[in-house]
Write a structure and sequence with these properties.
The model has no long low-confidence stretch (mean pLDDT about 95). The protein has one domain: 3-Layer(aba) Sandwich (Rossmann fold), CATH 3.40.50. Helix 4 packs across helix 10 and helix 5 crosses helix 6. The chain is α/β, with parallel strands linked by helices. The chain contains 10 helices and 8 strands.
Amino acid sequence: MPIDPQCKKILEIMAAAGGPPMEQQTHLELRAGRAAAAEASAALAGPEAPMAHVEDRLIPGPASEIPIRLYYPSLDRPLPIVVYYHGGGWVIGSIADWDRTCRSLAAASGCIVASVDYRLAPEHKFPAPADDSYTAFHWVATHAAEVGADPARIAVAGDSAGANLATAVCLMARDKKAHQPAFQLLVYPVVDVDDASPSMSENAEGYFLTRAGMRKFWDFYLASPADGQSPYASPAKANVAGLPPAFVITAEYDPLRDQGEAYAAKLKSAGVPSECKRYAGAIHAFFSFAGVVDSGKQAMSDAGAALRQALKT
């Protein structure tokens, strides 16, 4: 179908604001741009869903303490918990930037959401963000009672690069034979450094995330091309047998569309229960535009329903 008019309006506003394309910016310029647009980004994400309690913590990490923010939709105990990793190409973003998205997901799912402030590239290249992400999941799993969560009902979730980290956590937990997530919610995931699919060409420019921009993010993230072949960087290259059930969200006008759908199919072919839903007319990041894009609202509702069903809230 044609691009969603609400998404088209966002693209027109972005184009009118001007500025160089993301692939021509340094990581510091990208972060400054995100900071300058913080108020607008919050508005796009929608109103601040009320929570029964919100708590910031610092947990031990591989190199330094990792900030996490816990969102409690109710004071019932114990609740299922979702460990969430924000997007931003492994380079930009924070728990503050994704505050409203995480609030909305907690409200929609009835789960505690633990948002993770992993280290960012290029200062901290692969595998540092993935290591932080696994460490945070493992901390939640081993401290579930302390934070009012049920250790048998823990999911991982993320959008874009954050979904990449969620998949890496699932693979690491399986490979370490450690506590494993019960479910994975992957919102337009990045899973393949070598993606040459039709959507990467068809949606290469003009839909917010560009092919060149995605290539630049990979360059920021990886210390060498060889790192991109690691299954913890490119989960599409992994043996995915034994991973938890998944719900994968993709957008029609997203360069990442086909790799996300191919990953959902790979999971299913390996015997992993997997559902994939493509949102017609949508663009990359629409999940974080739920305040102004109806398909984003629907995706948030669908994500919440998938988590409720999987974690029995």
